[in-house]
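Z., the sequence and structure:
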Amino acid sequence: MTLIKLLLADDEPIILRGLKKLLPWEELGFEIVGEASDGRELRELIRDLSPQLVISDISMPEGNGIEVIQEMNGRGGQAKIVFISAFQEFGYAREAVQLGALDYLVKPISKSQLESVVRKAEALIREESEGWQKRERLHYYEAKDRAHTIEELTARLLDGDLKALTTLAELKSLFIDGRCTLFVIEAEDSFGKYAWQEKERSLAHFALGNVIRETVESQQTMRGLTLQKEDRFVVLMQHADVDTLANLIEELVGKIERYLKLHVACGVGRTVDSPEFAAVAYRSALKALDQTYFTGFGRVLLDEETCESKPSTPPFDSAERQARLIGSMIAQRKEDIHPLTEELFAQIGISAGIGKHAAISALYHLVLSVIREWEQLRGKTNSSDRSYALLLERLTACPSYAEACTVAEEALRSRMEAADDLALSRDHDTPARIRAYIDEHYAEAITLEKMAAEFYMNPYYFSSFFKKQIGQNFKTYVTDIRMTKALALLHNPDRMIYEIAEQVGYNNVRHFSDTFKKKYGQVPQDYRQSGRTLS
């Protein structure tokens, strides 16, 4: 049981000591919080300590009991006062009782008299305290029920129920007419790089809701309603001045960041002429908030339909960049992957009016298109429908477009690297087999397309693979082989130049001579006559 705060006052120290010892105060439910020796000190202690019971001599220096009780009445004081008086001060005591003193005792005080008065005071104080607590509880529950009712009505209004607007107007929560703007606040679901646990999330949302409601309810020139819908907070403000509303939003976001250390996004919808269009304003605010997927938290976002039209972006040839990306994947130019995907993905992100789901779909189909075309050009298809489904799940789970772009790029890279590893593990002897084939068939009309078909590759991929593995492009390598063979044949004087040309794969002697001269600086006939040998 809570002890009642007791203050004792008398200008005679011996009486003060006697009062303290006369009764077992704590057993009776009292705590002596202070002692005063004159009227001035008594008034100061009453102001500072807010005692619930004062037992004081009625006549002391620097202020008598009448002055004390009058001052308390003037300030609306709640303390009970019991005065102690000498017989000749009976007139004072009677006036004090008339002014509200609980009782008076005539000196000398007996223990039984004092205990009787104290028990009466204790009963009154506790009865009044319980009554006050009941009234406070009743007021709390009434306010809570009203707040709950208003929240329910607000939720119905956002769903388009105009009967809810009529009731809100009757409750004086909104005007039936008047311009409205609705905004939605959402907190980032993490603290730094660490995701919130459920308890942390609940505490953060509780604190966030308190700051929002206190700020909205403190407005003098605007009328507002707040509503929590899942992890978001919806605020509907009725206002005359758009600038005042903008200042409120700026103040609110600043408070949240300053006091709660939370990063939030605020989506502001279109201003409507009446609360009856609250559902339209709500959809507009959600549309604005959806931009958080692209912009991140820490910003106030407006519905694009409320803004001036964006400047037109320069033409962008996505097909050309997609072709370059596929070419870089075939050629294994890994350093080109990021800048090319960054350009393609950024173009999706800035598309006018695109939302999260549309962005994910566009990103997904772009990756599929690139992988499928790349696989067709390589002449090999290894991707499964299951791998594509997993990619879509990963993209959908990303909380931001930036993270989805990272997942998409990783999908392209891992697919490219896995195919490369598979090719190396399965065909590690392919370069040797290609060389052997050329050594055996150099005299035939071997072309890049024929070689690609022989080794089950797309011609474009074969060309890239050949240069990477052999160190030369295909045409140069074949020419070098033919020229080396021609040099050896020229040492036999019985062979005609046209015969040598045919034996190394040239049907046109002129073409053979021109190629030989380009390689060795002389036509074949002059080379033979000069007697040069292969160094």
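The CA atoms of residues 146 and 184 lie 22 Å apart. The two ends are 113 Å apart (CA to CA).

Let me know what you think.
H.
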